[in-house]
Specification:
It is a single chain. The chain is α/β, with parallel strands linked by helices. It contains 31 helices and 34 strands. The strands form 11 sheets. A 7-stranded mixed beta barrel has the order 26-29-30-31-34-33-32. A 5-stranded parallel beta sheet has the order 6-5-4-9-10, with helices on both faces. The chain is globular.
């Protein structure tokens, strides 16, 4: 394909010729940041005069860094990445779309991924069994027993859909498999007249997709419904972003890790304000950031709100590709292409950025983050007093040595510590006797979960080897974990346990209870399994406020474990240290970790390995053959996977008795033409919510309570509680998921004050009694009453959970009115036909005096082909008093408007495919 700018050329690498689209033919390309150069190439290569136009290319070439109103472009990712929690509903939707196209007289083979789509099963393992040699085997067997219905669907999809591959369970986390194996860095494909080379780009159905940004691959998280459109070849509409440059200088101080860096960056960029923007790392400090640390920074970009957080391609990229077993030709192609296209990092060249921020790596200090948000960094040396202040009901606000609790007064934790002030925290030691006869005490602030989990750190040999060496020295000193701590190790790939074995570190981790529990996301997504039974009983009976410590990336309320009210993110090395002390009250930098076998106190500094010691082990034990051998037959799976019985044919055979996979209702009543947009009249409020309501609060996640609407549904279908599994595993069953939407145990609906969890008031009944959100929505739907949600700032932040939007829509919600939105959730709401409205600046529910008991009318929609930029809203209370205000319509692009007009992205795509037959 040629374009109107005439940029097509040929690149020769090892006697192989590749067509490329030269960026230097665009005169202004040299000034663009790395990420925008990648987007520019994407437009040049895909220009067709219809979806991708010359005007879009020119707008990107003329990018104005400070402009807040940017032009719309159409981005075409090279591939799509999925994990099974979000991937199962994607496959369910594609299967349902095949049913729908058959019903409308179309060809089911039209429903096939048009770009490579890869799904990694990594979210289904639960750490039920821990601290014993058979933990991995036992958890893997339980995983397969629970999820066989879901796995049959995915196995069927693997053989029924073109361009669709599945990495079976027990292999690793999608982001690490992506980093180590799936990523191409420079993509190649066969064109009509030869091979074409271009930057590897992707979207993923997990918000931590930007982990691969550390490799110089541009990608970010999207909802499952957006991913489905990308899979079907639909370009993604987006506004040209602002790009924030983060200049890195200096070097890591001794005793600091990649975790300290990423928590500092999360805090810094949240304060800077990068929501919806790209972040790029540049400057002389980039050379001091190993690839694994870069991946950690990219992974946590959702925690500071950016769309991506990318490093340019350089020698470190090539070194990592060589380490992970990529071919020498691939490596030479990446180097040649990046240098030819101006994508190679030059520390002396500073592109134009919308804003620049600087961080001296030498300023880093050992840190954790929590107790509820990943951006709330706490210096380790003041952590005990911060925790005691929290337990005492006091609150502190963030700075370099303080933590954030919203809507609170400031207490300087470091001053309290230095002055020797003891907070009046509720000290309530409770005696417990464990099953082995051990007698001990449990108290507020004790650590009951210590988990080396998730992709954030288990991609990083520097901190993983560091944790192993720390464990080795702790054991040699005679230390052990506290008996009330549940410990677990869930690496991102099998390579981690390979290099642990080669380094001789496995036995020491096992000795401290960090036995392998599985390869996948466990504690970080709520798959932490039950606490030690006697501990769990004591926590509930005495209402103890206990903690989890994990090397993950998320610690939102109710996410990690329903019995841990405080959860702290930490490096794997600090996770081991907290397991040794068993409490947040110990100052790890000043207090002893315990008494060694020689009767002397042991301090963290006594067992902390130096960076040189860690690097020596890495150089000796982390080898390329681990990656080539580990991924040699990655899609084959074990005997359990290969022996799954699956149906033949191009249409899936739905099992009416399945409680995991059911035919969804998204295409019910969908015809070949969309119905007209209508106003929202006579709506009632389903929920009135505050600031920072995350998709974890909205979307069903974690364990299913037996007395919840979802639990009752499963019980009614003959499932006992031990077979409930998690909400994430049941995303293929809309009946379970509707019942779990807005059911998070920490959700506070201001419409039902005094409640916590999925409760609201049901105004279909006299007086509006308190009801479960699901039961109320059923009554509203029966009454034909549309629903509205009111929310504060940063509505929908967190993971890219499409069910946060799907559940909202299926509950009958027509519109959300919020002060601001996180990017992915706003887009997902539109994708499900829900109207995202935003208060004008300075307005919110409180300033307008909205109680939530009003009847809402949203006008100005009917009669329009496309929704307007703003609409009038009228809220009328029981006395007939009307509050009128104007709300912004947050449908930001013409493509989003098309999705909304069609009732969502799925009906839109179905009609597009029918029209193109």
């Amino acid at each position: 394909m040629t374009n109107s700018f005439g940029t097509r050329d040929t690149l020769l690498v090892d006697d192989s010729a590749y067509h490329i689209y030269r960026l230097d033919q665009i005169k202004t390309s040299h000034r663009l940041p790395f990420s925008l150069k990648v987007l520019l190439e994407n437009l040049l290569r895909n220009e067709d005069g219809r979806l991708v136009t010359r005007e879009q290319i020119q707008a990107l070439a003329d990018w104005k860094p400070q402009a807040s109103q940017q032009h719309e472009i159409q981005f075409t990712p090279s591939r799509v990445l999925m994990q099974d929690f979000t991937g199962v509903p994607c496959v369910v939707d594609l299967v349902a779309m095949r049913d729908a196209i058959i019903a409308l007289g179309g060809d089911p083979q039209r429903i096939n991924p048009l770009v490579p789509s890869e799904l990694v099963i990594d979210h289904s393992v639960i750490a039920d069994v821990f601290g014993q040699a058979n933990a991995f085997t036992a958890n893997a067997e339980l995983e397969f027993q629970r999820n066989v219905e879901r796995y049959q669907l995915l196995r069927w999809g693997q053989q029924a859909f073109d361009n669709f591959k599945v990495v079976p369970p027990g292999t690793g986390i999608c982001h690490q498999v992506n980093l180590e194996y799936l990523s191409r860095v420079v993509f190649t494909r066969e064109g009509p007249d030869g091979m074409v080379a271009y930057p590897d780009t992707l979207v993923g159905t997990d918000s931590h997709t930007p982990m691969v940004n550390g490799l110089g691959v541009l990608g970010w998280g999207v909802g499952g419904i957006e991913a489905e459109a990308a899979m079907l070849g639909q370009p993604m509409s987006m506004l040209i972003p602002q790009v924030v440059g983060l200049k890195l200088t200096g070097e890591f101080p001794p005793g600091t890790t990649a975790t300290d860096l990423v928590l500092t960056v999360a805090e810094l960029l949240r304060k800077t304000g990068v929501v919806g923007k790209f972040v790029e790392f540049y400057g002389p400090g980039v050379a001091n950031i190993p690839l694994a640390n870069r991946a950690t920074l990219g992974n946590m970009s959702p925690e500071y709100g950016s769309t991506c957080a990318i490093f340019p391609i350089d020698d470190e990229t090539l070194t990592y590709m060589r380490l992970t077993g990529r071919s020498e030709h691939e490596i030479r192609l990446v180097a040649a292409y990046a240098k030819e296209q101006g994508l190679w990092h030059d520390p002396n060249n500073e592109p134009e950025y919308s804003q620049t921020v600087e961080l001296d790596l030498g300023s880093l200090v050992p840190s954790i983050a929590g107790p509820k948000r990943p951006q709330d960094r706490i210096s380790v040396d003041v952590a005990p007093d911060t925790v005691r202040a929290l337990l005492a009901g006091e609150s502190v606000i963030a700075s370099d040595t303080m933590t954030i609790i919203p809507d609170s007064t400031a207490i300087k934790a470091e001053d309290l510590y230095d002055c020797g002030v003891d907070h009046n925290w509720p000290h309530r030691p409770v005696g417990i006797t464990l099953v082995d006869g051990t007698q001990t005490q449990l108290d507020n602030g004790h650590v009951v979960l210590a988990a080396i989990t998730s992709c954030t750190n288990t991609s990083n040999p520097l901190v993983m080897i560091g944790a192993g060496l720390l464990a080795k020295r702790a054991v040699e000193k005679g230390l052990s974990r506290k008996p009330w701590v549940k410990t677990s190790l869930a690496p991102g790939s099998r390579v981690v346990t390979d290099y642990y074995e080669r380094a001789g570190l496995t036995a020491y981790l096992d000795k401290l209870g960090f036995n392998l529990v599985g390869y996948g996301c466990t504690t970080c997504i709520g798959n932490s399994g039950p606490l030690i039974p006697e501990v769990a009983t004591a926590v509930d009976e005495h209402n103890l406020n206990v903690s989890g410590v994990l090397s993950g990336n998320r610690n939102f309320e109710g996410r990690i474990h329903p019995q841990t009210q405080m959860n702290f993110l930490a490096s794997p090395m600090l996770v081991v240290a907290y397991a040794l002390v068993g409490t947040m009250h110990t100052n790890l930098l000043k207090d002893s970790l315990g008494t060694g076998s020689d009767g002397k106190p042991v301090y963290l500094r006594d067992i902390w390995p130096s960076i040189r010691e860690i690097q020596d082990v890495i150089d000796e034990c982390v080898q390329a053959d681990m990656f080539t051998n580990g991924y040699a037959d990655v899609f084959a799976g074990d005997e359990n996977w290969r022996s799954l019985k699956i149906p033949d044919g191009s249409a899936f055979v739905w099992d009416a008795g399945s409680t995991y996979v059911r035919q969804p209702p998204y295409f019910d009543g969908v015809g070949r033409e969309p119905v007209a947009i209508t106003d929202v009249k006579g709506a009632r409020l389903l929920a009135k919510l505050g600031d920072s309501v995350t998709t974890d609060h909205i979307s069903p996640a974690g364990a299913i309570a037996i007395d919840s609407p979802a639990g009752k549904y499963l019980s009614d279908h003959g499932i006992d509680q031990k077979g409930f599994n998690s909400y994430g595993s049941r995303r293929g069953n809309h009946e379970v998921m509707i019942r779990g939407t807005f059911a998070n145990i920490r959700l506070r609906n201001q419409l039902a004050p005094g409640t916590e969890g999925g409760f609201t008031r049901d105004f279909t009944q006299q007086g509006g009694p308190v009801s479960s959100i699901y039961d109320a929505s059923v009554n509203y739907i029966k009454a034909g009453t549309p629903l509205v949600i009111l929310a504060g700032k940063e509505y929908g932040s967190g993971s890219s959970r499409d069910w946060a939007a799907k559940g909202t829509a299926l509950l009958g919600v027509r519109a959300v009115i919020a002060e601001s939105y996180e990017r992915i959730h706003r887009s997902n709401l539109i994708g499900m036909g829900v109207l995202p409205l935003q208060y004008n600046d300075g307005e919110n529910a409180e300033s307008l005096g909205l109680t939530g008991e009003e009847v809402f009318d949203i006008s100005g929609l009917a009669g329009n082909e496309m929704p307007p930029h703003e609409v009038p809203v009228c809220a009328t209370d029981e006395q007939g008093n009307a509050t009128r205000f104007v709300a912004k319509v947050r449908i930001d692009t013409p493509v989003e408007a098309d999705y909304y007009r069609h009732g969502g992205i799925l009906p839109y795509m179905l009609r597009q495919l029918l029209d193109n037959e």
